[in-house]
Amino acid sequence: MAKTSSLKRRQAYWAYAFLAIPMIFFLWIRIYPVLSSFHISRLEWDIFSANKPFVGLKNFERMLSDKTLHKALINTFKYIIICMPIGLGLSLVISLMMNAINKGAGFFRTLYFIPYVTSVVAVAAVWKWMFMKSGGLINNILAVAGLPVQPFMNSTSQSLPVIASNVIWQGLGFQIIIFLAGLKQIPRTFYEAAEIDGASKWASFRHVTIPLLNPTIVYLSVMAGIQTLQVFTQVFAISPGGSGGPLNSTLSIVLYIYQKAFKSFDMGYASAMTVLLFVIIMTISLLQMKLVTRKVEY
Question: How many whole angstroms from its chain centre is CA 222?
């Protein structure tokens, strides 16, 4: 009995030891930079200077009059408004169709998942070529069809939807796989009971599928919200010169933070904006969980 107890203690010690390694790495890579950004946000630091004077809330007060930051925030929320409902809606429709088929389901899952695991920069380069004003695939098709050529990335109104379409397309595969996993967990008996009661397909979808998919919808909504708020690579790679489009029409808050930190070397102000982004992400995530989550009664 004593030997068994001693063996269990040793196993527990080794388990905690192995768990401690990724935990320390996570704290070092994730938590420490977050805490550092709170500290740096109260300093005036240009990265090349050893002098880091404490300025308190000066960097945060500066945000109130920064029109470029205001534009970046508006654009970021536009990305959310476009990408989240369209992406989640499309992925749910496609997953419902894939859930209804037996033959070739694995092929379609792989086909839709490939864009998600493909390099974001590579996909963005293809997207940039497709929407070029001169020689781009889309404009070539429009020209053949006798339609006027569009400016796309050179337009203040068209450039943001172009980048949003890339974000939606690349994230579709992940959302489809998660929705499929949620659909597979719904017992068939619920649909059979609804059919016996004379419920239509729409009624079954509304009163059976959606409520039972609620945990999946909450998870994907929060994940999509966080990822869209942090959109950077697509904007940087697709926008002309990586500057955020004409008149900052595609500039996101993360790209603006990057510009301030690594082009202007204004680390104090960039860290203050990082803190602002952290607060926004936390607030929106909590609101999503509160609004989307519902108690499901069986």
Answer: 9
Tokens of 138: 């889309």
- pLDDT score of 286 more than 90: no
Secondary structure of the chain in HEC code, one letter for each residue: CHHHHHHHHHHHHHHHHHHHHHHHHHHHHHHHHHHHHHHHCCECCCCCCCCCCECCCHHHHHHCCCHHHHHHHHHHHHHHHHHHHHHHHHHHHHHHHHHCCCCCHHHHHHHHHHHHHCCHHHHHHHHHHHCCCCCCHHHHHHHHCCCCCCCHHHCCCCHHHHHHHHHHHHHHHHHHHHHHHHHHCCCHHHHHHHHHCCCCHHHHHHHHHHHHCHHHHHHHHHHHHHHHHCCCHHHHHHCHHHCCCHHHCCCCHHHHHHHHHHCCCCHHHHHHHHHHHHHHHHHHHHHHHHHHCCCCCC
Question: What whole-number distance in Å separates Cα of residue 214 and Cα of residue 208?
Answer: 10
Does 293 or 6 have the greater pLDDT score?
6
Which residues fall within 8 angstroms of residue 179, CB to CB, at 6 or more apart?
Answer: 91, 92, 95, 96, 213, 216, 220
Write out pLDDT tens, residues 153-179. Answer: 999 999 999 999 999 999 999 999 999
Residue 181 tokens read as 């996993």
The Cα-based distances of 131 to 34, 145, 159, 243, 266 in angstroms read: 37, 16, 9, 17, 34
Q: What is the pLDDT of residues 60-83, one digit of tens each?
A: 999 999 999 999 999 999 999 999
Q: Enter the pTM of the model.
A: 0.87
Distance in angstroms (rounded) separating the CA atoms of residues 15 and 257: 40
CA-based end-to-end distance of the chain: 45
